Amino acid sequence: MPYVTKKVFGLTALTMPPLTPRLGPWLYLSEGTYAHRLAQQKDLLNALIAQLPRFDVFCHHFLPEITNWLPFYWAGFQQTTRYTYRLEDLTDLGAVQAGFHRTTREQIRKAEQFVEVRDDLGIERLFEMNKKTFARQGLLPAHSSEMVGRIDAACEQNDSRRIFFAEDARGNTHAALYLVWDDRCVYSILAGSDPDWRSSGAGSLLFWRAIQLASEQGKSFDFEGSMIEPVERHFRNYGAQQVPYFRVWKMSRAMKAVCAGCDIWEALRGKQKEHFIWNPSGAPAGRTQRDRAF
Questions:
Q1: pLDDT tens digit string along 228-243?
Q2: HSE, side-chain direction, 13 A CA sphere, residue 167
Q3: Residues 15, 19, 21, CA angle at the centre, nearest 5°?
Q4: pLDDT tens per residue, range 236-273
Q5: Any idea of the CA torsion for 32, 38, 39, 41, to the nearest 10 degrees?
Q6: Which residues, in sequence order, are CB contacts of 97 under 8 Å at separation 6+?
Q7: How far apart, in Å, are the Cα atoms of 234 and each of 20, 37, 142, 240, 279?
Q8: What is the pTM of this model?
Q9: CA distances (Å), 120 to each of 62, 124, 162, in order?
Q10: How confident is the model over 185-222, as pLDDT tens digits?
Q11: What is the C-alpha to C-alpha distance for residues 27 and 2, in angstroms, rounded to an integer?
């Protein structure tokens, strides 16, 4: 069960690597009856939980394939069901596109008239697009260019990433999309667009090209979220299937006291109370300052 250890203000968090959609424990699929497999999972997960070091916060997004979190529940962890959207069967791209919402197909056709999809503009151009997306929301980027560069170098070395850009004839970059993949699935984990060209449909075209790439590789495509309502609607319009996964977390007494103190302070200042949620995936919206801490 891989995890990342982070320390902030003397508090220890066991969380996920940046730009990692989901992790959680990996269990070898054993043989035997269903009851036997569940018993084995219980023993293995209990052993993993027992080996965790002392922490103030534990938070992981489990892979959708992990459907048994009962040992974590019995150990005092909590769980929230979240959703991603996936296109599983990409063997017939005509049928896939027929499942798109009408407006999505129109946006793709519109973008195809005056932008070209290319993959040779580099990680810095992607980061420029990403910063513009955050700036439009009055936010700073969730990740530094140095960190994204290190991840990109590792992915490039392992031949497991592609960066798509939509560029017009005048050299204007309308949108960018960062993709990574494993042996089963292609994931979109970072994107950005120029606010001046948001109506061009370039973002939809890049997702369509990403879906085509996944089809060429014989993989499924994962939109990687999102729980943010407008983003969810955009992904749903590609005809993707809603797939649940678990966010599993636990906090120490010290951490609960810190959270309670923050809530009291916000209430005294007359601000609306924010629920304490951990979001290690780095979603660009719906994050509190306490989310940013880890």
A1: 888 888 899 999 999 9
A2: 14
A3: 75
A4: 999 999 999 999 999 998 888 877 767 665 655 554 43
A5: 110
A6: 105, 208
A7: 21, 38, 21, 10, 20
A8: 0.84
A9: 33, 11, 9
A10: 999 999 999 988 888 999 999 999 999 999 999 999 99
A11: 12
Q: Are 86 and 223 in contact (CB under 8 A)?
A: yes
259: its two tokens: 């959270």
Q: Which residue segments constitute the domains of the chain, with CATH numbers given?
A: 4-83+244-293 (no CATH), 91-218 (3.40.630.30)
Q: What's the token pair of residue 19?
A: 């730009």
What single-letter DSSP state applies at residue 183? S
Query: Which residue is listed with tokens 């749903």?
Result: 236
Q: Write b or e for each residue in 63-89: b if 16 or more Cβ atoms lie within 10 A of its Cβ, otherwise e.
A: ebebebbebbeeeebeeeebebbbbee
